[in-house]
Amino acid sequence: MGNVHRRTFLQGAVATMGGVVVGGSLQTLLAEAAAAKPPTGPLGPVPDARDGIVRLWLPPGFSYQSFHDTDGPPVVLPDGTTLPGRHDGMAAFAGPDGNVWLVRNHEINGPGAAFGPSSPGPDDAPYDAMAQGGTTTSLVSPSGEVSDAFTSLNGTQMNCSGGRMPWGSWISCEETVNGPDVGADFTGVSNVPLQQRHGFIFEVPAGGKSERQPVTSAGRFAHEAAAYSPDEGFVYLTEDNFGFPSGLYRYIPPSNPMSAGGLENGGALQMLRVVGTPNAHLEATQTNGAAYPVDWVDIDDPDPTFPYTPGEPAPTTNNDAIKFVGDQGRAQGAAHFSRLEGAVFAKGEIFFTSTQGGGAAETGPDTVGGYGNGAGQIWSYNPRTQVLTCRYQSLSTTNLELPDNVTARNNRGSIVICEDGPGDNYIRGLTADATLFDIALNRLRRNAPPNAPRFGEEFAGATFSPDGHTLFVNIQAAQAVTFAVWGPWGRLGV
């Protein structure tokens, strides 16, 4: 997520690293194309129902209302929490009286006092009193009116994306490995003040509060998103390791979460490998429909602690720590991806994005421009056939630029993709026949004069209400905002 200023992009075409079409995946892709519907018209300016200001361009027939806008006076929630910015990954659950519970990440880095309610109770104690990230939960109407909101997880760091779980929880993911046992990250800020290790996933129940206990067996790495496969009872996890190869992981819990009512610790972590191609460079150029048979390698030490002396800078560098788990998989041939971000289970598969995938294969770490030389890829993995398929590769930044969070309204329509580029940012739809279309365009401006444009700020956290009526989505920025968007989704093929 974010950090556009750290990126540089290499342009130019390279030779294709082709896959093989196996298991009927491409045939299924093409067969589904008949169900896809084109968009119904060009995007145009639509006034915000909150105050009449144009903040989004949408297709004909669509409306929206913004809320929890932090570009102005502090927003104080009913429990006394001062709402943090950096609204990021998010999930929607059925609430009382036709309302929706929204559980929303706040991707805040760096040591500092944890946010929380003004009069905290025993269930409000932060995981780490010196970490500033977490989640807030809001009860909202389908058109974006907020009736309640509170802190549901605090004391975590860099809560980027995560995943909606069908047993009624949000999995919130830390995109960092900071801790007192690890040296400073890319910000250069010391980790000495931190009281806990970070780099984990946390469960937040819909409408309730997290127990603030990390699922450490699911790995300590730069987590991004989570998606649950009901066929297996496994949780698939993406990794956004900015300067190094990223991996696709799966967590096998000790018991099925649907039976246990939650995601238990103590399971096994595995990493994806392409059969017959050790360390396959999947960050390199692909063709749409290229498919790979895969298997999985075990991660023996998913939860490392590094030696350190309390109160002193740790000797283990952040770069060494952030690739420690992934290096275990790559030593066994696990595949290289570029910056895996959003993930969603739809149409029987795990769809996920590779933000800088495509272009020339990387020859080593790239801690300045980011690992990956392309404009982005969309992948899917079929748990039943164990086949990985490249569903879409962007040919240029004018086509699809740096895909990030993804969601789906149902199992029939298009995949919905949030862009995270330095220029104009769109929400786009991807049909089953690999056709892109536009759903929304960021036309946000500062609320105060001179009302400077904020078009380069990313969409994040796209999630549909359980009935499919409303798309809730954030602008992830220090001055963040959430939108409720509704309209004739079926006419878009969403």
- Our estimate of the beta-strand percent is 25-35%
- With strands numbered from the N-terminus, the spatial order across the biggest sheet is 11-12-13-14-15-19-18-17-16
Shape: globular
Number of helices: 5
The major pleated sheet works out as:
9 strands, antiparallel
Q: Please, what is the average pLDDT?
A: 92
Supply the helix-strand structural class.
mainly beta
- How many strand units? 26
How many discrete domains?
A: 1
Q: Report helical residue fraction.
A: under 10%
Radius of gyration: 21 Å
Q: What is the straight-line distance between the termini?
A: 24 Å
Segments where pLDDT lies below 50 for 5+ residues?
A: 3-38
Protein traits:
six-stranded antiparallel beta sheet, disordered N terminus, nine-stranded antiparallel beta sheet, 34% strand, single chain, 494 residues, 5 helices, 26 strands, mainly beta
Q: What do these coordinates show?
A:
With 494 residues, this protein is mainly beta. It has five helices and 26 strands. The chain has helices at 25-32, 257-260, 318-322, 324-330, 489-492, and strands at 44-47, 54-58, 63-67, 87-94, 100-106, 133-140, 146-156, 159-165, 169-174, 201-205, 223-229, 234-239, 248-252, 268-274, 291-298, 340-346, 349-354, 377-382, 387-393, 403-408, 415-419, 426-430, 436-442, 458-464, 470-476, 481-486. The chain has a nine-stranded antiparallel β-sheet with strand order 11-12-13-14-15-19-18-17-16, with helices on one face. A six-stranded antiparallel β-sheet has the order 1-2-23-22-21-20, with no helix packed on it. Strand 22 (426-430) and strand 23 (436-442) form a beta hairpin. The longest helix is centred in the first third of the chain and has 8 residues, at 25-32. It is globular and about 55 Å long. Mean pLDDT is 92; it is low at 3-38.
